[in-house]
Amino acid sequence: MLQWIHDQFKGWSLRQLLLQTLNFFMIIGSVFMLWKGWSLFVNSESPIVVVLSESMEPAFQRGDLLFLSMPNEPIRVGDITVFKIKGREVPIVHRVLTVHDEIETGKQYILTKGDNNPGDDRVLYNHNQMWIHREDVIGKVQGFLPYAGMVTIIMNDYPQLKFALLGVLGLLVVFQRE
């Protein structure tokens, strides 16, 4: 293994190696900057999510990639929202079933349901929680790309594949001589 690494770097100066490493980190940094820029543009902390379950079939299938934004208008019945429940990391993609607007405070009380689920989402909410609020919503679905998120699901199901792919990509960047 060491001989193979030595053969790969034969003729390289330390400067070339550092430039290739810097190039790798610039690519990673650019991806993060694009993500943050897109988040600011669409006003959503997570502008893209992957559907992880069958609860929204037939509207969305497992593995669909959803594009989100958070417009300033109120949430309405029928909107497909992505929301987070306090204390849980994975966001939920479900349709708004009922909305109650409190006039005095301007607060919205929202009840959601998965299209493929028999009942509303109160069983998914925290104990004694009957509604979610607008602050729990991270975005409304604006569009989707069918099955484009399957890569994410596969990477989460097989984490060793994720590290192998990242390692191969890193090696390609480092060994690229252009």
Automatic annotation (TrEMBL):
Reactions the enzyme catalyzes: Cleavage of hydrophobic, N-terminal signal or leader sequences from secreted and periplasmic proteins
Principal cellular location given in the protein's record: endoplasmic reticulum
Positions of the Peptidase S24/S26A/S26B/S26C domain: 43-98
Membrane topology: Single-pass type II membrane protein
Molecular function, one GO term: serine-type endopeptidase activity
GO cellular component: signal peptidase complex
One GO process term, biological-process aspect: signal peptide processing
Keyword terms: Endoplasmic reticulum, Hydrolase, Membrane, Protease, Signal-anchor, Transmembrane, Transmembrane helix
Compartment annotation: Endoplasmic reticulum membrane
Gene3D superfamilies: Umud Fragment, subunit A
PROSITE patterns: SPASE_I_1
Sequence similarity: Belongs to the peptidase S26B family.
Subunit relationships: Component of the signal peptidase complex (SPC) composed of a catalytic subunit SEC11 and three accessory subunits SPC1, SPC2 and SPC3. The complex induces a local thinning of the ER membrane which is used to measure the length of the signal peptide (SP) h-region of protein substrates. This ensures the selectivity of the complex towards h-regions shorter than 18-20 amino acids. SPC associates with the translocon complex.
Name the UniProt record assigns to this protein: Signal peptidase complex catalytic subunit SEC11
